[in-house]
Specification:
Chain B: Keywords: Cell membrane, Membrane, NAD, Oxidoreductase, Quinone, Translocase, Transmembrane, Transmembrane helix, Transport. Chain B: Its EC number is 7.1.1.-. The complex is a heterotrimer. Chain A has one domain. Chain A contains 22 helices and five strands. In chain A, strand 3 and strand 4 form a beta hairpin. In chain A, helix 4 packs antiparallel against helix 6, helix 4 packs parallel to helix 16 and helix 11 packs antiparallel against helix 13. Chain B is an all-alpha fold. Helices cover 78% and strands 0% of the residues of chain B. In chain B, helix 1 packs antiparallel against helix 2 and helix 2 packs antiparallel against helix 3. The longest helix of chain B has 31 residues. By secondary structure, chain C is mainly alpha-helical. Chain C has a domain of 65 residues: Methane Monooxygenase Hydroxylase, Chain G, domain 1 (Up-down Bundle), CATH 1.20.58.1610. Chain C is built from five helices and no strands. The longest helix of chain C is centred in the C-terminal third of the chain and has 28 residues. The chains are: A mainly alpha, B mainly alpha, C mainly alpha. Chains A and C meet through helix 2 of A and helix 5 of C.
Amino acid sequence: MTGTIHSLWTTAADSATPLDKIPTPKIEYAQLSPVLIVFGAAVLGILVEALLPRRSRYIAQLGVSVTGLAAAFAAIVALAADGYASAKSHIAAMGAVAVDGPALFLQGTIVLVALVAAFTFAERRLDPLAHGRRVDSFAAQGSTVPGSEQEKRAVRAGFTTTEVFPLLLFAVGGMMIFPAANDLLTLFVSLEVFSLPLYLLCALARRHRLLSQEAAVKYFLLGAFSSAILLFGVALLYGYAGTISYGGIADVISGTAKMTPALANTTANDSLLLIGGAMVVVGLLFKVAAVPFHMWTPDVYQGAPTPVTGFMAAATKVAAFGALLRLLYVVLPGIRWDWRPVMWGVAIATMVIGAIIAVTQTDVKRLLAYSSIAHAGFILAGVIALSPDGVSSVLFYLAAYSFVTLGAFAVVTLVRDAGGEATHLSRWAGLGRRSPLVAAVFAVFLLAFAGIPLTSGFAGKFAVFKAAAQGGAVPLVIIGVISSAIAAFFYIRVIVLMFFSEPQPGGPSVAVPSALTSTAIAAGVAVTLALGVAPQYFLDLAGKASVFVR
Amino acid sequence: MNPINYLYLSALLFTIGGAGVLVRRNAIIVFMCVELMLNACNLAFVTFARLHGNLDGQIIAFFTMVVAAAEVVVGLAIIVTFFRSRHSASVDDASLMKL
Amino acid sequence: MNTYVPILVLGALAAGFAIFSVDMARRTGPKRYNRAKLDAYECGIEPTPQPAGGGRFPIKYYLTAMLFIVFDIEIVFLYPWAVSFDALGLFGLVEMLLFVLTVFVAYAYVWRRGGLEWD
């Protein structure tokens, strides 16, 4: 054993001048520009917070966020048009970040979702005026104790937490790297970069601060726990392969890597690989809210400020599924016979449990949370297919699902009573009679969740199940269709409740939003219908972008 | 000494941390257990770096330290605001939302 | 072994000097005790009284400690860079400047928003 151990210090002493041998790293700034633009905008946002007077911060932050996200999207489109999504796709930044089809497609989705989410973050017409000032969904001052004199002073002074915009941008930047990460260290760091701002955003609700803080504590403790598990998995995989790059580990698994004595020693036993891979996958399954790692989802979705919930539910899922796809397709295809049965079990449990528990929910936000769990199960079915069709169907499903989710949560912010948002389902009874437009829009989103034809949800589910069936997972598809039927039951129930029951006396009112939230909801409806009516163009787009670079 | 022993120690520390997260009730203690898990990862990284004779593991340990520090700052901020509004840091008191 | 003799001699001299000074001060110095001398030693500042209610500290400590940790830990990246500064050349310098600049943005935020004020 000891003979195989290299001593770093003796090898360093052997070579005369080891320090001169560091090759200068090369960073392809142009290919990383989408991420760099978003992070630059976030840093600019911090400077805005530091240097501008309080009253001009809101408009400046909104401008910086929207400009930054739009510029990042333009950069992504330019890269894709330049062929980086197909022919020129390669690995940038010394092996740390992949620039390829899936990465660019998911980054584009995340940036668009974030752009729409920034509008809902900026909405200031829903809450009643606080001391003559328009306020948004976020706490006047995050550090104050709810109900304290200090908080009242902050509200009177008209404070607002405009830091939510830089936090949003940092989260977006992390999410953009996450599906593009091409080594395990980048994976871990980007996971933390997008998780930490989300933990903070969860704690910042203006109404129901106690719920919001509780959600943040739960999300943080469980999130930190899961990322520690992921990190230990990274350590074990590194121990197995002696490298953290995706391609390097895949080479070691397939046996094509150059054997060294140390490598022969660590690869002699597969337990490092199996346990390490399992722990990394568990960390990712936590982020996509797959059963049995879903326990945080309902509480966090319910407690977080609704615009944050919408963003988190949509964008986190896109980023985490992207990372899961790349890990399973690039690093671990060599042990697919080991992970596929397990993922089968996870997918089945996620679909069934998500759909069944959703039926019993009485709160709109919790209902949407369980529905997002069920959808994670459907997407997992596409992941398991392990084929190019599987990748493209998952990409399409993620794009479709994220806009539906964002729109649905934006509608939830509109239905309000004296205590803020009225999220209890009984309060939504008869909404269709009082405000037909809002109820109709919400019905469109629910139908898309249920997978009714002519909505994006149908096209997505069809593509995913088709890919899974072709991949040999027919029983999985059957269970998926059954759980979609169960899920459709509770979506339809909400629609029936809205349109066919008597409005409650003293029920909630529907706030008239500004152009910001209206734009967000309109974008959601437009994408839902466009992807539902003419899915082929977008499926082709996803199909073209479905090859991972190695 | 055989480096494998450090891996055993690392796994042991990780398990202690994981068990602590699951059984302890004070949010601060739970959080300290998470930090213990991260440190166990660091030990595994540097041990593997020595086994393989490359520096990757040592570099990752640096990154883990920085990430852990950022996590401490964010986490304590959240736990402190939680504590100030409830005068308790017990995770059992975080039950406004039903399970 | 010979190379270590000067160090041993230096150590012995230092220890001898320390013992000698303490002993001389004790024998010859005046002994006038007052409140400040009997207080707990806290790096030269006024000792902080034990807070009421069983050992809770004001939140200001938390803020300062957190800021310290965040900015302190950045050194972890500066140190390896400084060691291989020559080999990395201009590229390393530019990247490290960008990194330090980002840290300074955070510093500017903390400073302007009153995070460094004790009261």
